[in-house]
Amino acid sequence: MSLFIELTELMAKYRFRPRKKLAQNFLTDEKVIQRMVTAAELNEKDKVLEIGAGTGFLTRELQKHCSVIAIEYDETLCELLQNELAKDNLELICGDFLKVELPDFNKIVSTPPYHISKKIMIKLLKHGFELAVLAFQEEFVEKLTALPGFPQYGALSVLTQYKTNPKVIGKIEPKAFFPKPKSRSRIVKLEKNERKNKAVDELLFFRFVEELFRHRNKNLSNAISCSREFLSKKLGIGTKQGIEILHSFELEKKVALIEVEEFIQMFNALY
């Protein structure tokens, strides 16, 4: 039985339709599912997080390899998952991913709701993980992987590349989903970046990067001057002192051209 036919039967059995408000587009391409599972390099010791488990097609493939923590917001789909999936290696959390306290896990394999992609990524990056295989809209993946100087390069690019080594490993055509999304999707693999030089306070570093990118088209000197409130409240220094501390950096360089390693060095110097 194809996954699309199975989906239609489940829709009839549990009386539901994809909810546009929740950005529900169910993945029904078995080859894509297998590619994501294979890319995660799973073994029986892994604990995998899945965000937006939906109808459980990806979940049950993950269960063949390891324990799964599946989070689902939709109450009807939670009932479906409880009834249709094996329970011996599944922890099902019915709730809002952005609000629930995450249990321990080391890997992530998921096709999360696209409309909250950024919020999901920020929460995952702050939590930390060994490896993730995620499907997002093509435009969003470009933001995760963008390099300095490209229009898509921003705070999220820096934070993603600070914590991980992102790599696009495949594309997903709209026909792989029901209903079809308007744009194409990409599969991105994120492996933990074991960098030697780390920010002394990672959560504050995240906020520092976000603050500077509020002034992405200004040079570093002007961006620091425009961030006086952040510097004063969070780092306890004035803008003049901040510029003096960063005198060895290229103060005329635009924020959008600053590399990840430079952001780390600047933050640690100011901290």
Automatic annotation (TrEMBL):
<feature type="binding site">
    <location>
        <position position="52"/>
    </location>
    <ligand>
        <name>S-adenosyl-L-methionine</name>
    </ligand>
</feature>
<keyword id="KW-0694">RNA-binding</keyword>
<keyword id="KW-0808">Transferase</keyword>
<dbReference type="InterPro" id="IPR020596">
    <property type="entry name" value="rRNA_Ade_Mease_Trfase_CS"/>
</dbReference>
<feature type="domain" description="Ribosomal RNA adenine methylase transferase N-terminal">
    <location>
        <begin position="32"/>
        <end position="194"/>
    </location>
</feature>
<dbReference type="GO" id="GO:0003723">
    <property type="term" value="F:RNA binding"/>
</dbReference>
<dbReference type="InterPro" id="IPR001737">
    <property type="entry name" value="KsgA/Erm"/>
</dbReference>
<feature type="binding site">
    <location>
        <position position="27"/>
    </location>
    <ligand>
        <name>S-adenosyl-L-methionine</name>
    </ligand>
</feature>
<feature type="binding site">
    <location>
        <position position="72"/>
    </location>
    <ligand>
        <name>S-adenosyl-L-methionine</name>
    </ligand>
</feature>
<dbReference type="InterPro" id="IPR029063">
    <property type="entry name" value="SAM-dependent_MTases_sf"/>
</dbReference>
<keyword id="KW-0698">rRNA processing</keyword>
<protein>
    <submittedName>
        <fullName>Ribosomal RNA small subunit methyltransferase A</fullName>
        <ecNumber>2.1.1.182</ecNumber>
    </submittedName>
</protein>
<keyword id="KW-0963">Cytoplasm</keyword>
<dbReference type="InterPro" id="IPR020598">
    <property type="entry name" value="rRNA_Ade_methylase_Trfase_N"/>
</dbReference>
<dbReference type="InterPro" id="IPR023165">
    <property type="entry name" value="rRNA_Ade_diMease-like_C"/>
</dbReference>
<comment type="similarity">
    <text>Belongs to the class I-like SAM-binding methyltransferase superfamily. rRNA adenine N(6)-methyltransferase family.</text>
</comment>
<dbReference type="Pfam" id="PF00398">
    <property type="entry name" value="RrnaAD"/>
</dbReference>
<dbReference type="InterPro" id="IPR011530">
    <property type="entry name" value="rRNA_adenine_dimethylase"/>
</dbReference>
<keyword id="KW-0489">Methyltransferase</keyword>
<dbReference type="GO" id="GO:0052908">
    <property type="term" value="F:16S rRNA (adenine(1518)-N(6)/adenine(1519)-N(6))-dimethyltransferase activity"/>
</dbReference>
<keyword id="KW-0949">S-adenosyl-L-methionine</keyword>
<feature type="binding site">
    <location>
        <position position="25"/>
    </location>
    <ligand>
        <name>S-adenosyl-L-methionine</name>
    </ligand>
</feature>
<feature type="binding site">
    <location>
        <position position="96"/>
    </location>
    <ligand>
        <name>S-adenosyl-L-methionine</name>
    </ligand>
</feature>
